[in-house]
Amino acid sequence: MALAEAAVVGTWDVEKWRAESACRYEDVNLFFPAGVTGPAEHQIKQAKAICARCPVRDTCLAFAIETNQEYGVWGGTTEDERRVLRRAWRARRAALKAVS
């Protein structure tokens, strides 16, 4: 089942990838800074450092993109970074649909 489909039916974590995440015992607030400047910059760097050593980073990022997670650090990316990736992901999906 694709992540986007799983999110719709409420079973997006069927493979239990979150149980393998490096952030599972961290304070969730670290991954949802208030802003992008000042103290938030340090918080984002800390969150990204945790993501950098995460064995499920790619799965987390795919989930965030496919389910349109607009806030926080997911898969080592910020909100702005994911917006860029999401646009590219949507363009690839549209191109694939056009040729099928």
Can you give a write-up of this model?
The chain has one domain (3-8, 21-99). 52% of the residues lie in helices and 0% in strands. The protein has four helices and no strands. Helix 3 packs across helix 4 (79-99). It is globular. The relative contact order is 0.13. Residues 1-9 have low confidence and may be disordered.
> How would you sum up the global shape?
globular
Instruction: Estimate nothing, just give the exact number of structural domains.
Output: 1
Helicity range:
40-55%
What is the overall number of helices? 4
Largest sheet: none
Mean pLDDT: 86
Query: Radius of gyration in whole Å, from Cα?
Result: 14 Å
| N-to-C series of helices and strands | HHHH
Secondary-structure class: mainly alpha
Beta content comes to: under 5%
> Stretches where pLDDT falls below 50 for ≥5 residues?
1-9
Q: Oligomer, anyone?
A: single chain
* Topology, number of strands: 0
Spatial gap, N to C terminus: 20 Å
